[in-house]
Specification:
Number of strands of chain A: 5
Mean pLDDT of chain A: 88
Largest sheet of chain A: 5 strands, mixed
Distance between the termini of chain B: 65 Å
Largest interface: B-C, 66 and 80 residues
CATH class of chain A: Alpha Beta
Chains: A alpha/beta (about 190), B mainly alpha (about 160), C alpha+beta (about 675)
Strand order of the largest sheet of chain A: 3-2-1-4-5
Mean pLDDT of chain B: 81
Number of helices of chain A: 5
Helix content of chain B: 55-70%
CATH superfamily of the largest domain in chain B: Cytochrome C biogenesis protein
Distance between the termini of chain A: 65 Å
Radius of gyration of chain B: 30 Å
Strand content of chain B: under 5%
Oligomer: heterotrimer
Strand content of chain A: 15-25%
Number of domains of chain A: 1
Helix content of chain A: 25-40%
CATH architecture of chain A: 3-Layer(aba) Sandwich
Number of helices of chain B: 6
Radius of gyration of chain A: 21 Å
Shape of chain A: elongated
Number of domains of chain B: 2
Chain lengths: ~190, ~160, ~675
């Protein structure tokens, strides 16, 4: 009895140690927070156009019934990494024919227009989220964030931070392919 | 050094606070509720801070949102659920009670209970030993030694 | 050249530690007195060489030697000298070096001051201590060398995080480490006792001063960190249940339990295996803290730069030290004889309750801190937060009964106590506490029931502690001169206990006052704006640009008026550190015993609001908050008084059947 009791601290320590070992996995990022939106319908939101931009705005309805997956990118002119990401997204649109929607997050319209004029505008539609409320609906924690939405309007994937660099682009393209494959499988 | 002198004439970048005057509601009861709710919600971009004490942009948006929902007539629980449904369990400083958090919430009771059990068994073991043996010779010896020693330390 | 000397010295310290980890313990097993006594020289050697290493790094920081990578990353030539020095332990590598230095100093202190400890126990203890040294010095040499060079050297450094450039925080790590590492000695004593298979009153007495020294440093370290958070972070909080705070709090809770259970082992020869277990666990929790802070396992406000490789190495150290010692415990503890018997109403039983409650509280903090990790592992990547609402809800209900028992415990005698007698004496205390609480309620009104319950218990503890002292000196029962003589003759450890217990009560007033009755005003201000708070009329006079050695600041000027009379001026600052490109808020505080008026300024978040030079002013009134620091100081002082008790200095009682090595345990002549 006493012998068994004396073993308890060791056993607890061993269990804790097992968890620590798991937690040290270099692939694990303690700051990565999974989105609750995955496999859920895209959230309700309704955005106005960016003032002075010809690109139309969009709402949740525009994300349902597309022939293939679409990319929803949250960006802002004041966001430095967005600049780097812009080139990657442009490539995805121009070379691969992906469809790209943008949420212009807490930006001044004139800054956004200047930014898009300078870098080019790969977005099919852009909504102006001046209050950041749509951002909350999407559950974003910062800019940029990029979502992949399936043809039925289901959110399939989220990428936090800029899709820049080989690893990130590879990951993102895999997710896109998977989303496209799912569409084909489903007969979409 | 030159850098520093130059700064004397510029507008300095300045820290921003968490709760701002323009967020605060006129109605002090609602405001109080908003502050309490804000302490239950975690700032998702910060390291372990609630939105009430965080100066991050998203935290400010959420604080404003919380107040808007309160003004619109939501209950505290509804406001928290609103944010919870968009950001998940992570955003709650007080984890919800469910199957996967039962271990956490029951742990204090389990720990307290086992402490009681240990205490009880120690006491009863002490009582049993007494009836069985009384003071052992070694213990008698020790008591004597302690008395002796206390005497010594009082005298010196 | 100096950094290389430091590096080399570290390697020599490692060599010393390796010798010490083998030779003395072998000597103890074989009865070879020379081998045993070699520990004295090797432990002094370790201190010598780690000191050289430490001073080499210190010199690099003081002279701003930017060929050393660590200096580049954590210092700047314009930084004030104090913070250049503090930069030595501001980084992961430097703080580790300080850790090792303190570790070796404690080892050497045992070998120098522990003249009354039997050679075999001392030899084994120092060998165990050397195992820890070997673990940490190799960790430093292999993964975290503070002496790495950079080529070409940059012109200037990157500066230490401005938040950390503060006197309070400069002293925080050394105190904390003395606490953490001080428990290593207790751990080594415990492991040595397990190896010897012998724990008795004498052992407990040898261990006690080390426990006390570590405990009081840890107390001071935690209080200092808390104080820093209070005045530096700009929102007036002093405890956030952050993982990094929790990992320093857990060894404190366990160490407090250990301090008390060791008394039972010393006086009554009971709780032996429990005391050993606490000694092991207290240091294990210190190591766990080191692991969590340096591995990036949990997200926290103030973790060091994260490196999984380092994490793995420390986890290995943890596995060997904690796993090994607990395995040894499981093997040897069951054969330990249970000690003195006692009744359910006795000092022992009171201390048993103390220990069980403290252990429960530690368990709650530990489980709550690590639960997000468990959850993530078990759900396959889901995240969860365990924040202050959980800890407050779980922790406070455990601590309040503890405070209640603390009032009664000291009245109980060993073995078999007279509870009705004790309660009789406490009747007056209870009535007084209830009346005082009612009076406070009558004056203050409002506030949660829990607040008043806590106030009641704090008063109870404070008055009961004083009462216990008056009973000891028989105040009013005997002529006053006789009481005074008794008061003068009470051992210092008794005064230590009284002071520490009263200190906790005092700190409780601070905890309660500042968390329950805090008031706050947040307003936009322009020169001339007036704010009313807690009976004060505060006028914002304007802003002025001031310059510090390595920062520029906007300093606000506030005039405080109360009842039409000028009280003081406050100068809160918002600082900008150009090198580190970051800001800090320097709050301005008017401290009185009644409470702190706390002001800080910042820029409004929205640009419209900030147009035309408008600022955000945050004014807090924190009632009684200074009682926290006063209470903490009383805890530290109480620990110090106990430590200075001559009975501890003079040493331990003669060990009953210690014949083999009798020369070591003789009572020193005075």
């Amino acid at each position: 009895m006493t012998r068994a009791l004396a073993l308890i601290p060791l056993l607890i320590a061993l269990v804790f140690g097992g968890f620590f070992l798991w937690g040290l996995d270099p692939d694990r990022d303690p700051n990565d927070i999974p989105s609750v939106l995955i496999s859920q319908p895209a959230p309700e939101f309704n955005l106005l156009e960016v003032d002075g931009l010809a690109t139309p705005s969009f709402s949740q309805a525009d994300l349902v019934g597309n022939p293939g997956p679409v990319i929803v990118n949250v960006f802002a002119s004041w966001c430095v990494p967005c600049r780097a990401e812009h080139a990657v997204l442009t490539q995805l649109v121009e070379r691969e024919g992906q469809r790209l929607f943008g949420i212009n997050y807490k930006d001044k319209p004139e800054d956004a227009v200047r930014w898009l004029t300078e870098l080019g505008n790969p977005y099919e539609m852009i909504g102006a989220d001046s209050t950041g409320r749509a951002g909350i609906e999407w559950g974003i924690s910062g800019v940029p964030e990029t979502f992949i939405v399936g043809s039925d309007g289901t959110v399939l994937y989220r990428y936090v931070g800029p899709v820049v660099g080989d690893d990130a682009v590879k990951k993102f393209r895999e997710a896109l392919d998977q989303a496209g494959a799912m569409e084909i499988e489903a007969g979409g | 050094m030159r850098h520093l002198i130059l700064l004397i004439f510029l507008i300095l970048p300045m820290a921003v606070f968490a709760v701002e005057p323009d967020e605060i509601l006129q109605d002090s009861v609602l405001e109080q509720r908003a502050r309490e709710i804000s302490k239950e919600l975690r700032c998702v971009v910060c390291q372990n801070q609630d939105i009430d004490s965080s100066n991050a942009g998203v935290a400010r948006d959420l604080r404003i949102l919380v107040r808007e929902r309160l003004v619109a007539g939501d209950s505290d629980e509804e406001v928290i659920n609103y944010v919870h449904s968009r950001y998940g369990d992570y955003v709650l400083m007080r984890p919800p009670f469910n199957l996967s958090t039962a271990a956490l919430w029951l742990a204090p009771f389990v720990l307290a209970l086992s402490a009681l059990l240990i205490g009880w068994s120690v006491l009863s073991a002490s009582r049993r030993r007494k009836t069985a043996a009384g003071l052992s010779a070694a213990e008698e010896d020790e008591v004597a030694r302690f008395i002796e020693q206390n005497k010594v330390s009082k005298e010196t | 050249m100096t950094p290389e000397i430091g590096h080399f010295a570290l390697a020599l310290a490692l060599a010393m530690a390796i010798v010490q980890s083998v030779l003395p313990i072998l000597g103890a097993a074989r009865g070879n007195i020379l081998w045993m006594q070699s520990a004295k020289w090797s432990s002094l050697g370790q201190v010598f060489f780690t000191s050289i290493a430490f001073f080499a790094l210190l010199q690099a920081f003081v002279t701003s030697d930017f060929t050393v990578k660590n200096v580049v990353e954590n210092s700047h030539s314009l930084k004030p000298m104090l913070f250049k020095i503090a930069g030595t332990w501001g980084s992961h590598e430097g703080s580790l070096l300080l850790w090792v230095l303190i570790l070796t100093v404690f080892g050497a202190a045992v070998s120098v001051f522990g003249a009354n400890i039997p050679d075999s126990l001392k030899a084994r203890t120092l060998s165990v201590q050397a195992w820890i040294s070997v673990g940490f010095i190799t960790f430093m040499l292999f993964t975290s060398n503070p002496f790495d060079r950079v080529f070409p050297p940059p012109i200037d450094g990157q500066d230490l995080n401005p938040l950390l450039q503060d006197v309070g925080l400069a002293m925080h790590p050394p105190l904390l480490y003395i606490g953490y590492v001080g428990f290593s000695i207790v751990f080594s004593f415990a492991v040595a006792a397990l190896i010897e298979g012998r724990v008795d009153a004498a052992w407990a007495r040898w261990v006690r001063p080390w426990t006390l020294a570590a405990w009081l440093s840890l107390t001071a370290g935690i209080a200092l960190g808390s104080w820093w958070a209070y005045y530096e972070l700009g929102w007036g909080g002093w405890w956030f249940w952050d993982p990094v705070e929790n990992v320093s709090f857990m060894p404190w809770l366990m160490g407090t339990a250990l301090l008390h259970s060791a008394i039972v082992t010393e006086k009554r020869d009971a709780f032996k295996s429990w005391t050993i277990l606490l000694a092991i666990l207290t240091f294990s929790l210190s190591l766990l803290g080191t692991f969590i802070v340096r591995s990036g396992l949990l997200t926290s406000v103030h973790a060091f730069a994260v490196d999984p490789e380092r994490g793995l190495y420390i986890l290995g150290l943890l596995a060997v030290s904690i796993g090994g010692s607990l395995a040894l415990f499981a093997w040897r503890a069951p054969v330990m004889e249970p000690g003195g018997i006692f009744k359910p109403i006795s000092r022992e039983a009171g201390l048993l309750i103390n220990n069980l409650l403290l252990a429960t509280a530690t368990g709650i903090v530990l489980f709550g801190t690590l639960y997000p990790l468990f959850y993530e592992a078990l759900t396959g990547g889901q995240k969860l937060s365990v924040g202050p609402p959980f800890f407050n809800a779980a922790f406070i209900p455990i601590m309040l009964p503890l405070v209640f028992v603390m009032g009664i415990g000291p009245f109980l005698s060993w073995k078999r106590a007279d509870l009705p007698g004790a309660l009789q004496r406490l009747r007056f205390v209870a009535v007084l506490a209830v009346l005082a609480t009612l009076a406070i309620w009558y004056i203050v009104r409002g506030g949660p029931v829990l607040g008043y319950l806590s106030i009641l218990l704090a008063i109870w503890l404070f008055v009961a502690t004083l009462k216990e002292w008056t009973v000891r000196i028989k105040l009013f029962d005997v002529p006053f001169a006789e009481s005074r003589r008794r008061a003068a003759n009470l051992p210092r450890s008794t005064y230590g206990m009284t002071l520490a217990h009263a200190g906790l009560a005092v700190a409780m007033f601070g905890f309660i006052g500042s968390s329950v009755w805090k008031t706050e005003e947040i307003v936009f201000v322009k020169p001339g704006s007036e704010i009313e708070i807690a009976g004060f009329n505060v006028t914002f006079e304007g802003l002025e640009r001031v310059r510090g050695p390595n920062y520029v600041a906007d300093q606000g000027r506030l005039t405080v008026i109360q009842d039409g009379e000028f009280v003081t001026e406050l100068f809160p600052e918002s600082r900008y550190y150009p090198v580190a490109e970051s800001n800090t808020t320097e709050s301005a505080i008017r401290s009185t015993m009644a409470g702190d008026l706390y002001a800080s300024i910042a820029r409004p978040a929205s640009e419209e609001a900030g147009a035309g030079g408008t600022l955000t002013l945050r004014i807090l009134y924190e009632p009684l908050v200074n009682f926290i620091w006063i209470g903490s100081a009383m805890l530290v002082l109480g620990g110090g008084l106990s430590l200075s008790d001559r009975r501890l200095r003079v040493g331990a009682p003669r060990r009953g059947s210690e014949k083999k090595i009798s020369n070591a345990s003789k009572v020193p002549a005075e």
